[in-house]
Design a protein that fits this description.
- There is one protein chain.
- The chain folds into three domains: about 60 residues, Nucleic acid-binding proteins (OB fold (Dihydrolipoamide Acetyltransferase, E2P), Beta Barrel); about 70 residues, Orthogonal Bundle (DNA polymerase, domain 1); about 50 residues, Orthogonal Bundle (Helicase, Ruva Protein, domain 3), CATH 1.10.8.10.
- It has nine helices and five strands, in the order βββαββαααααααα.
- β1 and β2 form a beta hairpin.
């Protein structure tokens, strides 16, 4: 098992990136939450990884934090949830926000994540209620991790733009054009759409 990679970012085009580790390019798939924190191409990065072995491929997934990787691992244990859906969850919602949804039985918020239907959301809430307490890192405190943080706003804006029909790489490019001082989901979407029309 490959536990982590440390090397230079050789290329990045969501959801894929290439990490150059001592001259070997590792292709990695990562959620948008990790992409938001990546340095520029050529800079050094360290990612926690999880290797999925399939009949037709070995796929390496990368995460900016241990908590993201741990949540990914818990998600793919749930019946009907594969790596693609797990990446969508981590791209559309923060780890703390996911905790809040599970703690408060808020399946409705999970349904807003692209690719998550009502039954899957309810299954996630039920099956992960007790298992999330074992995630590494700071324990979740009810009342924290609510919508409004910049990371959540970015993720919500990303999900909304994808829902409007924009391709993920295009959405990433549009959001990168938005002034860093802009906060709030609606403002991010408005500025991104303005950038798309210019």
């Amino acid at each position: 098992m490959i536990g982590f990679l440390r090397g230079r970012v050789a290329a990045k085009q969501p959801p894929q990136l290439v990490i150059d580790v001592a001259g070997v390019g590792y292709e990695v798939e990562a959620p948008m939450s990790t992409f938001y924190g990546l340095p520029s191409v050529g800079a050094e990065v360290r990612l926690h990884t999880h290797l999925v072995v399939r009949e037709d491929a070995h796929v390496l997934y990368g995460f900016g934090t241990e908590r993201e990787r741990s949540l990914f691992r818990e998600l793919i244990k749930v019946s009907g949830v594969g790596p693609r859906i797990a990446l969508a969850v981590l791209s559309g919602i923060t780890v703390d926000e996911f905790h809040r949804c599970v703690e408060t039985h808020d399946a409705a918020s999970l349904v807003r994540v692209p690719g998550i239907g009502r039954k899957t959301a309810e299954r996630l809430v039920i099956e992960l209620r007790d298992r999330l307490k074992g995630l590494p890192g700071e324990p979740f405190v009810p009342g924290t991790g609510v919508a409004g943080t910049s990371g959540t706003a970015q993720a919500e804006a990303f999900a909304a733009l994808v829902a409007l029909g924009y391709k993920p790489p295009e959405v990433t490019r549009l959001l990168q054009k938005v002034d860093p001082s802009v906060s709030g989901t609606e403002e991010l979407i408005r500025h991104a759409l303005r950038a798309a029309g210019s």
